[in-house]
Design brief:
Elements: E1 3-5, H1 11-18, H2 27-39, E2 43-50, E3 53-62, E4 66-74, H3 83-94, E5 99-102, H4 107-118
Parallel strand pairs: 4-5
Antiparallel strand pairs: 1-2, 2-3, 3-4
The structure holds coenzyme A.
């Protein structure tokens, strides 16, 4: 199980998964977000795949010393199984030594993941 990088052929699955975030409820906002991940070299979207299903997505923006997690979403059928935590852990490892930062929308869940890491 690894993070799979977004490609243009994943547009539909990206829209589906990102639409679970409250900031992405408007279709024009969602389209703009997908476009950012397609066109901006600092924006990266990854998927988590279980068997043949794309079950989660995590999207970040790279900065000079940090990366900001803008999106984290898991399909409702697969929630509370640890996929969110594992995506956060993998994205962190992938972008070391950059420090992870959050948006107002992702901060509570990321704080939960950090707590979990530090409590072993
Ligand atoms: C947030 C989300 C990605 C978590 O995915 P997940 O695979 O269910 O997460 P995990 O199984 O790794 O962890 C579940 C734990 O996170 C908690 N959690 C879920 N959403 C949370 C949030 N927004 N803030 C804080 N904790 C949250 C759950 O209550 C659960 O807690 P518990 O372990 O004490 O029971 C998923 O709930 C989701 O897609 N939500 C809709 C999208 C969204 O709102 N994203 C913004 C937050 S990143």
């Amino acid at each position: 199980m690894v993070l799979i990088k977004f490609e243009n052929s994943h547009e539909k699955v990206a829209m589906n998964l990102l639409s679970f975030m409250s900031s992405e409820q408007k279709l024009n906002v969602l389209h703009h977000t997908i476009q950012l991940y397609e066109e901006n070299p600092n924006w990266h979207l990854y998927f988590w795949k279980l068997k043949e299903n794309f079950v989660g997505a995590i999207g970040i923006e790279l900065n000079e010393h940090t990366f900001n997690v803008h999106h984290a979403s898991v399909h409702p059928d697969f929630r509370n199984e640890g996929i969110g935590h594992i995506m956060v852990e993998h994205v962190q490892r992938l972008h070391e030594p950059l420090a992870m930062s959050a948006t107002p929308e992702t901060k509570d869940f990321l704080a939960k993941c950090w707590e979990h890491q530090f409590s072993g």
